[in-house]
Design brief:
The protein has 500 residues and is an alpha/beta fold. Helices cover 41% and strands 12% of the residues. Helix 14 packs across helix 15, helix 19 crosses helix 23 and helix 21 packs across helix 23. The termini are far apart.
Length: 500
C-alpha cells in the first residue's frame, strides 16, 4: 500500500476504512495470496517443505497463536522473523502513539482524546512492516512490568494526574507490539507468574496493567519458541498457558546430508574478499556436514541438548580460513580446502555439543577427532565404493611413508606423492581432471589418504605422516602355564584352585 493519505478525514474515505482486519486476518489474507501465486513462503528455510512449513501454514490459516518446539540450531527464530513478510507493507497509525493505535479505532485514552479534539484534520502516520515485529528473549529476570507495563509516577506528577489514571501508564513490550507480531524466544525460561500474565492475552486478547481497571483489547499475533530440554533443565511451560497456545509445531535437523549442505552453503561465510578465489570441493563440504550427522548419532554426545546446525557452518568457515592461511603462505592463487583442514576446526566443533559420561572420560577433543574420522570414512566409502585401493596400500606396506600435514604446500604434496602408484588415479575419481591446478590435485590426494586412514588401511601420525597400517598384535596359539599374575583364586575351603 502506498501512503498518499495524510489526514484522518482522507483515511475515512479510503478502502482501508471499509475493511478493518485483525493482524491475524491480515497475515492469513497475505498468506492466501502468496499460496495462490505460488510464491516462496519462507525464503532461506531449507528441508522443512514437507514437514514444518505445512503445519505452519495450517496454523496461520487457522489464525492460531503457535509455538515452535525444537532443539537448538533448527531455524526457529529465523522462521518467526520470516513472518514479517506476511504483514502489509504499511499501516496507518496515530502519530507518536506508543502502541501504534489505529486512527479509526484508537485504544488508549490519549489517542481517543486526540481524535475527538482534532477530528478529520488530525494527521496520520504510516508504519512499515519491519517495525511491527517485536522479539523478546525470555530470561528469569523478566518482570511483568517489562512484559505488560507499569504505572509511571513521574508522568503522573508532571501531568498532575492520579496514579489510577490511564494516562499514567508506561507500556511494556507486549502493548508496544499492538497490531503486529510479538515473539518470545525460549518461553520455558520465563518465570511462571509472568506466563500467567499471558493468559488473558492469548484467550481474550486484552491486557490489564498493574491491577488497575484499565483494559486494552490488543491486536497481536503471539508466537513462541522453546527447547524441549528446557522443560526439565531450566524451567517449563505451565500447563494452562500451553493449553491456550493454538498449535505446537515440531522442528527438526536436516534429514539428509544434502539438505544440510544446502543450509551450510547458504549460511557459512566462504566468499572472502581479496585477490584469492575460494573453491571448496564437494567432498569437503560432505565431510563437514557428515561430522554433524555423526555427532547427532554418537552415544557419547547428549541427544537431549542436540547438535546445532551452527556446527557445520562455523566448521566450514574455519576450514576455509585454514586453507586461506596455507595459500597465503605458499603464494597459491586459489584457496582449495582439504579434508585435513577440518582438524583445524576442532575449537569450533568441541564447543557445539554436550558430552555424556562416556564422552567426558575421553575428552571433547578426542571425541571430535573420532567424529571427523568416521565422517571421512563414510563419505570416502560412498565415493570409492568398489574402487581398487590395493596398489596404494601395498606401497605403504612395502615401507613407503609420506610426511605430509595440513600446512604442506600443494606443489610439494603433488611432488611427494608422484611415486605412489595408483594414488593419482584414485584422486581423479573425485572429479579432478588431468592438468588441474596443484591445489585441486593436492586436495583430492589428501582426501584419498585420509579415507584410507579412516578405513584403517594405512596409519597416520604427527611424526611419520602417512605410513603402513600398524599390525594388531597376534595372540599365541600355544597354551601357556598360568602364573601368579594372571590367575584368580576361586572361592572355597581347602586347596586353592586357579583358572586362566
Amino acid at each position: 500500500m502506498v501512503a498518499p493519505i495524510q489526514t484522518l478525514g482522507q483515511l475515512r474515505h479510503h478502502s482501508f476504512a471499509s475493511c478493518p482486519r485483525s493482524v491475524k486476518q491480515e497475515i492469513r489474507d497475505n498468506l492466501v495470496r502468496k499460496l495462490q501465486a505460488g510464491e516462496t513462503l519462507f525464503p532461506g528455510i531449507i528441508g522443512y517443505d514437507d514437514t514444518v512449513i505445512p503445519q505452519l501454514v495450517n496454523a496461520i490459516l487457522s489464525r492460531h497463536n503457535f509455538i515452535l518446539l525444537g532443539l537448538r540450531g533448527q531455524a526457529k527464530s529465523r522462521i518467526l522473523r520470516g513472518l514479517v513478510d506476511l504483514l502489509d507493507e504499511l499501516i496507518p497509525i496515530v502519530p507518536g502513539c506508543e502502541i501504534h493505535d489505529n486512527p479509526l479505532a484508537p485504544l488508549c485514552a490519549a489517542c481517543q482524546a486526540r481524535v475527538a479534539r482534532e477530528g478529520d484534520s488530525m494527521p496520520i502516520a504510516w508504519l512499515p512492516r519491519e517495525a511491527r515485529f517485536v522479539e523478546k528473549l525470555a530470561t528469569p529476570d523478566v518482570t511483568i512490568a517489562d512484559m505488560v507495563g507499569d504505572i509511571d509516577p513521574i508522568k503522573a506528577a508532571q501531568a498532575g494526574l492520579n496514579l489510577g489514571d490511564e494516562l499514567t501508564m508506561h507500556y511494556g513490550l507486549l502493548p508496544r507490539a499492538n497490531r503486529g507480531i510479538f515473539a518470545i524466544n525460549e518461553l520455558p525460561d520465563l518465570a511462571g507468574k509472568i506466563q500467567v500474565g499471558l493468559f488473558n492475552i492469548l484467550q481474550e486478547g486484552d491486557v490489564q496493567i498493574k491491577g488497575y481497571p484499565v483494559r486494552l483489547r490488543l491486536d497481536v499475533l503471539l508466537v513462541f519458541t522453546a527447547n524441549p530440554e528446557d522443560y526439565t533443565a531450566r524451567g517449563k511451560i505451565i500447563t494452562p498457558l500451553k493449553d491456550r497456545i493454538g498449535s505446537e509445531i515440531r522442528t527438526h535437523y536436516p534429514s539428509t546430508r544434502h539438505s544440510g549442505m544446502a543450509i551450510t552453503a547458504q549460511e557459512a561465510w566462504t566468499e572472502r574478499a581479496g585477490a584469492l578465489r575460494v573453491d571448496v570441493p564437494a567432498y569437503v563440504r560432505e565431510v563437514v556436514e557428515e561430522v554433524a550427522f555423526q555427532a547427532r548419532a554418537d552415544r557419547k554426545i547428549d541427544k537431549r541438548s542436540g547438535v546445532s546446525q551452527r556446527l557445520p557452518i562455523s566448521t566450514l568457515e574455519l576450514v576455509v580460513s585454514n586453507a586461506e592461511r596455507r595459500a597465503l603462505q605458499s603464494c597459491e592463487k586459489v584457496v582449495v580446502p582439504r579434508v585435513t583442514d577440518i582438524y583445524a576446526a576442532l575449537p569450533s566443533i568441541t564447543g557445539k555439543f554436550e558430552l555424556e559420561y562416556e564422552g567426558e572420560l575421553r575428552g571433547a577433543e578426542q571425541v571430535a577427532r573420532e567424529l571427523i574420522k568416521s565422517a571421512v570414512g563414510n563419505v570416502f566409502t560412498g565415493i570409492f565404493d568398489g574402487a581398487d585401493t590395493r596398489t596404494v596400500v601395498e606401497w605403504f606396506d612395502l615401507g613407503g611413508s609420506l610426511p605430509l600435514s595440513d600446512g604442506t604446500a600443494a606443489e610439494e604434496v603433488v611432488a611427494r606423492t608422484r611415486g605412489v602408484q595408483g594414488l593419482r588415479e584414485l584422486a581423479e575419481r573425485v572429479g579432478v581432471p588431468p592438468g588441474a591446478p596443484a591445489p585441486f590435485v593436492a586436495a583430492a590426494i589428501d582426501f584419498v589418504l585420509e579415507g584410507l586412514y579412516a578405513q584403517r588401511k594405512i596409519s597416520r601420525s604427527d611424526e611419520r605422516g602417512y605410513a603402513a597400517a600398524e599390525a594388531a598384535p597376534r595372540r599365541s596359539s600355544r597354551r601357556e602355564e598360568p602364573t601368579l599374575d594372571d590367575t584368580i583364586p576361586l572361592p572355597g575351603a581347602g586347596k586353592k584352585k586357579y583358572y586362566n
